[in-house]
Write a structure and sequence with these properties.
Elements lengths: L1 H6 L2 H10 L2 H24 L4 H22 L3 H13 L6 H23 L1 H4 L8 H36 L5 H35 L6 H22 L2
Helix pairs in contact: 3-4, 3-10, 5-6, 6-8, 8-9, 9-10
Length: 235
């Protein structure tokens, strides 16, 4: 009976839906990858022996390669999303629309260049330009994240303007106020995720002098936010 209760528990069914998605598996692997990056740095700074650090270094490197494989072909999704955002005829803030196009094009170019380096990473075909392509990929990702961060700040400012215009003494105003609170919470969470993610290409490109501890911890936080978001979508 106890085994049946566990097997047929709704959480187990939810977990199976979660791991059935490529995004769900990628987010879990990403969390482990960046936590290992942070923990390997911590162990190194704590003067731990190499044999203790080695497993976490291996997880960091091998999960990064695995995730590259999971991303193959995903660039098409972002090119399509950029075209859809550009052709969107619904009433929408033009600034946010162009930010969405910039974000999607940045991600699409990043994934395209990242895909090109996969054959070199796994040793199928060595490319002399692999390092340059990976650097350009990070630059494209940085631009995409920057567009999303700017859009998030703009959205946050817009929500403040809407909130000031709401009459909370009115019933409709109370409903609108609660709606704004939900939108603000979602915007803040996305902003936190984007700012954490920005540390990764910033460090790789030399824009910021960040050690593996900061990058690993920031990557872990943004990954956990991604896990939570995907978990809710698969509920």
């Amino acid at each position: 009976m106890t085994a049946d209760a566990l097997v047929y528990h709704p959480t187990v069914s939810h977990y199976l839906r979660f791991v059935a998605t490529t995004v769900g598996r990628d987010k879990l692997l990403r969390t482990l990858q960046y936590f290992s990056r942070f923990y390997a740095w911590y162990l190194f700074r704590s003067n731990s022996p190499p044999r203790v650090i080695a497993p976490f270094e291996a997880i960091k490197k091998q999960f990064a390669i695995t995730r590259k494989a999971l991303r193959l072909g995903k660039n098409v999704e972002h090119f399509k999303a950029a075209a859809s955002a550009m052709d969107d005829t619904k009433p929408r803030d033009e600034f946010l629309r162009y930010c969405a196009v910039g974000r999607q094009l940045g991600y699409a170019l990043y994934l395209t260049l990242d895909m090109a380096t996969y054959v070199d990473t796994v040793g199928i075909w060595k490319l002399e330009s692999a390092k340059r392509l990976q650097k350009e990929a990070y630059r494209a990702w940085f631009v995409g994240l920057l567009f999303n961060t700017v859009a998030g700040c703009y959205t946050f400012w817009g929500l403040r303007q809407r909130e000031q215009a709401v009459d909370k003494a009115d019933r409709e105003g109370v409903v609108e106020s609660k709606k704004i609170e939900r939108e603000r919470a979602a915007t803040n969470l996305q902003l936190l995720s984007d700012l954490c993610d920005l540390t990764i290409p910033s460090s790789a490109l030399g824009y910021a002098n960040l050690d593996d501890g900061i990058v690993g911890l920031a990557g872990t936080v943004s990954s956990l936010i991604g896990v939570w978001g995907t978990w809710k979508k698969t509920a």
